[in-house]
C-alpha cells in the first residue's frame, strides 16, 4: 500500500545551510553558492533559510553567522533568514540582541533567532572565544535576557539593545537532547530538533517538549521544526550516488579531517571500515535519500512519527546544479 503524499497544508519546507566549501573551490565561491541556493529555495516556496554557527572547522564557512544572515537577506526578497543556530555560550546576550535587532530593523519580519546551548567548537576554540565550559550553565538566564532585550522597553530598564529593543525577533530553541526540549516547553518557545546529525533522541525530545509545553506570549501551542538530511534524485541510483558526498563528509568528521565536500563516488566500499560505516549510518539515520516516491515515503513517516510542523532539510550535494535539482524535486513532491 502506497504512502499518501505529503501536503503543504501538513508540513512546511525550510533549509539549513552551513555554507559548505567544496574541494577545489574557494570560500568566496561557497558564499556565492549559498546565496544562489537561498534564492532558489525562495522561488520554490521554502519558508526559511537558516545558517549555523561553527568555528575552526575546515569545510564550514558559516562562522560569522549574523554577517551571512544579513548578506543572504539582502539578496533575497521574502524568505525568512535566521540562525540555526547562534551558540549562545559564545556571545554576550546584549551583543546578540544588537546584531539581530539590527538585522530585524533592516529586514522587518524576516529574521529568526535560533539559539543553541553547545559551544559549537572544541576546547581550544572555546578558549580563543574567551568562553568557558560552565558558560552553558547560564543558558536559560541568557535566553530570558535576550527576550527582555528584544522585547518592548520596560519602566526603569537600564540595559537596552539599540537597535533591538521592541523588535521582538522570534526566538527558537535548538537541541539534539532533552535539555532544550524541556526549556522550550517551559518557556513556551518553538523548538527545532537536530535529527540531521543526532536522531537518536528525536522522539523522546519532541514528546517531552509537546507534553510539557506551557503557552506563552510568544507561542500559544507547541511548534516543532525537524532537521533532516534529504537528497532526492531522478532515480534511487542517482540519489545514492549524490549522497556519497555527504557520507564522505561525516566520515571525515569522525576522522578529524577537512569537512569540505568531495565529489560523489559510485561506492563507499573501500573508503570506510565497518565500524566507520556503522557510525555514519547512525549519524544519518533520519536521512531521506532516494527517488521522489521513496523520499516522500520517508518524510511522511517522519512527520507521522513526530508530528513535526516543519522540515528543515540539509542537502549535502557536491555539484551545485545537482543540489538545486534535488531541492526542486523535493518541492515538487511536497506539493503533489
Automatic annotation (TrEMBL):
GO terms for molecular function: oxidoreductase activity, acting on paired donors, with incorporation or reduction of molecular oxygen. Pfam families: Bac_luciferase (PF00296). InterPro entries: Bact_Lucif_Oxidored (IPR050766), CmoO-like (IPR019949), Luciferase-like_dom (IPR011251), Luciferase-like_sf (IPR036661). This is Luciferase-like monooxygenase. It comes from Oceanisphaera avium. To bacterial alkanal monooxygenase alpha and beta chains. CDD domains: Flavin_utilizing_monoxygenases. The lineage of its organism: Bacteria, Pseudomonadati, Pseudomonadota, Gammaproteobacteria, Aeromonadales. NCBIfam families: oxido_grp_1. One of its GO terms (cellular component) is cytosol. Residues 24-309 form the Luciferase-like domain.
Amino acid at each position: 500500500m502506497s504512502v499518501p503524499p505529503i501536503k503543504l497544508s501538513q508540513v512546511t519546507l525550510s533549509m539549513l545551510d552551513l555554507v559548505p566549501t567544496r574541494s577545489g573551490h574557494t570560500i568566496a565561491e561557497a558564499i556565492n553558492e549559498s546565496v544562489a541556493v537561498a534564492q532558489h529555495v525562495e522561488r520554490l516556496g521554502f519558508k526559511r533559510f537558516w545558517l549555523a554557527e561553527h568555528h575552526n572547522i575546515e569545510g564550514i564557512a558559516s562562522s560569522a553567522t549574523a554577517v551571512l544572515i544579513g548578506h543572504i537577506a539582502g539578496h533575497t526578497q521574502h524568505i525568512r533568514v535566521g540562525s540555526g543556530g547562534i551558540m549562545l555560550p559564545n556571545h554576550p546576550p546584549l551583543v546578540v540582541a544588537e546584531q539581530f535587532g539590527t538585522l530585524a530593523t533592516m529586514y522587518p519580519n524576516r529574521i529568526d533567532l535560533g539559539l543553541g546551548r553547545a559551544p559549537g567548537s572544541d576546547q581550544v576554540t572555546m578558549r580563543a572565544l574567551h568562553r568557558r565550559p560552565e558558560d552553558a550553565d547560564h543558558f536559560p538566564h541568557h535566553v530570558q535576557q535576550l527576550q527582555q532585550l528584544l522585547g518592548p522597553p520596560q519602566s526603569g530598564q537600564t540595559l537596552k539593545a539599540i537597535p533591538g529593543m521592541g523588535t521582538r525577533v522570534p526566538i527558537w530553541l535548538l537541541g539534539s537532547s532533552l535539555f532544550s526540549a524541556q526549556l522550550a516547553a517551559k518557556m513556551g518557545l518553538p523548538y527545532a530538533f537536530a535529527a540531521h546529525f543526532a536522531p537518536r533522541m528525536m522522539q523522546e525530545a519532541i514528546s517531552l517538549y509537546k507534553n510539557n509545553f506551557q503557552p506563552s506570549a510568544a507561542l500559544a501551542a507547541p511548534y516543532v521544526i525537524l532537521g533532516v538530511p534529504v537528497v532526492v534524485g531522478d532515480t534511487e541510483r542517482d540519489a545514492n550516488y549524490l549522497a556519497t558526498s555527504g557520507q564522505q563528509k561525516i566520515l571525515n568528521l569522525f576522522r578529524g579531517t577537512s569537512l569540505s565536500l568531495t565529489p560523489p563516488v559510485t561506492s563507499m566500499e573501500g573508503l570506510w571500515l565497518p565500524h566507520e560505516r556503522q557510525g555514519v549510518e547512525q549519524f544519518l539515520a533520519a536521512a531521506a535519500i532516494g527517488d521522489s516516491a521513496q523520499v516522500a515515503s520517508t518524510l511522511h513517516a517522519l512527520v507521522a512519527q513526530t508530528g513535526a510542523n516543519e522540515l528543515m532539510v540539509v542537502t549535502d550535494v557536491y555539484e551545485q546544479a545537482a543540489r538545486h535539482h534535488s531541492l526542486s524535486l523535493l518541492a515538487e513532491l511536497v506539493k503533489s
